[in-house]
## 1
Amino acid sequence: MEVERFEALVAEALDSIPPAFQRYLDNVAVVIEAWPRPYQMARVGLGPGSLLLGLYEGVPRTRRPAAMNLSLPDKITIFQGPIEIVVPGDGPARDEAIRHEVRRVVLHEVAHHFGFGEERLRELGY
């Protein structure tokens, strides 16, 4: 998939977040990378051969002190290559499946920003 199309899918997923939650994402940078770097894989305990679809780096809102207003932005990285690997098929059906997977990954990483852990996100289907 073209990078521009993938970027548009990430933007669409972010736009689908209700405004009541979007206002708390003002200090979150969302970036797209082709593949995770080794240090990113290590940060979440994944080794070679594993796939990392997205990564949240920051302090969840539920753990922030009130005086943390002047900090660097949190960062959400969405990895295009691994997402394309986990979505089989081709043609328009695959494009729609990638769209669905991008939205799932974006919401998963945004949920980390709001303090959700991996176990709870699995329970919710993310």
## 2
Amino acid sequence: MNETKPDFWESLSPAQAAIVTVLVPSLYLLALVVAWFSPKHFGFGIRPLVYAGFTVGLSGVVLWIVAMIHLGKSLAVLPGGERLVTHGVYKVLRHPVYLGIDMTLFGLFLAVGSTVGMIYFFVVVLPLNIIRSRFEEKALLQKFGDPYKTYRQQTWF
């Protein structure tokens, strides 16, 4: 018999899934708390970095919102969904929400010149989104198979 082991997300109990559903977004919220309370040196003393950070951050917010709109009812903290979303920004990017989050927080920390924020971004946020995207890829590949393989080959991160 060739049994497949359950997907990581499917193996979570309802209580564990609830914890992950609350914990993951809390780590992004914590990034904002870090930015608010950590010492700031706007643009790290380089005024154009303030504008660059603001531009990157604002672009990230727009990408993040547009991606969530395109996801519609497929939007969830844990991977799942009943259909493969391949329209809008998902025609080019597989994980625009994660990229939008990354751009938003990186831009924010750059603009306010927060060294602690930058460390938090590179140690917590970026690895979290890479790990989440890998789990999501695995879940979507398991659920959708060849159509997802084709989609993955035609898109960037």
## 3
Amino acid sequence: MSLRALYEVPAPAKLNLFLHVIGRRADGYHLLQSVFVLIDWCDTLHFERRDDARLLRHDMGVTLPDDDLCLRAARALQRASGTHQGVDILIEKSIPWGAGLGGGSSDAASTLLALNQLWGLHWPRERLLELALPLGADVPFFVGGRNAFVEGIGEQLTPLDMPPQRYAVLKPDAPIATPTIFQAPQLRRDTEPAIVTSFLADTQLQQRLAHGWGRNDLQPIAEQLCPEVAQAARWLEARFGNSRMSGSGSAVYARVVSDVGNDTGKESPPEATWCAEDLPPRWAGRLCHSLDRHPLIGWAG
């Protein structure tokens, strides 16, 4: 029996545990290395199949651009598969935009995975990945479904097992436009690359990664352009002893530890009240848990 609808479809955010800019291609795209980790801060999407081939989006709260990544993802899959089916997409946004958390890319990936089921295509993951990269550099990661060492412009994924971790994530009110960061002349573009095979084989390095190895090469530029990024970093440092910006910002996160005498010397605050009392107005904050894999990982072969 064919599906008519899929409801409560999650689209999780991600964090960059580090982000190194190691070069630039002739076409202007920057070459990156990073480790992406899924977290349980999610948008929620609902899909209702149509028989008239129309692709429609309905915003449940935040108003999105007319032709957002979800519609572009649906259009790409419809065109590539030749299906005459359509869909109504309802989106409940929770992940802040302009945050470096990959919310729009995650929505697009969940759209590809959901429509793969709803339209009865049952494409393998590799085929969906071919549609993912043209939609955006982060989309392949979410389609891939695993925490990963990410290289190139986002298309080279090496699955990586990471221990469970809690993160305090803050999104200042101000967003940051990613192109502005990458166009900055003072951006460092020559970080020495890590060799992925050595990286994955180095258990000590992976342990250091879990405790804050590396840096985000985009963060100094972001802090110059958006003082709230530096303010958020200081806010987290004061409470957790560590902080780092995710992606191109403006969200900043801290590793949350559960006992005194750990690597930061900080004790976790109570989960329900960790940021309720003194966050600046219009900041978003959440205590998140890492995910071992994408909730929809079984929706592609």
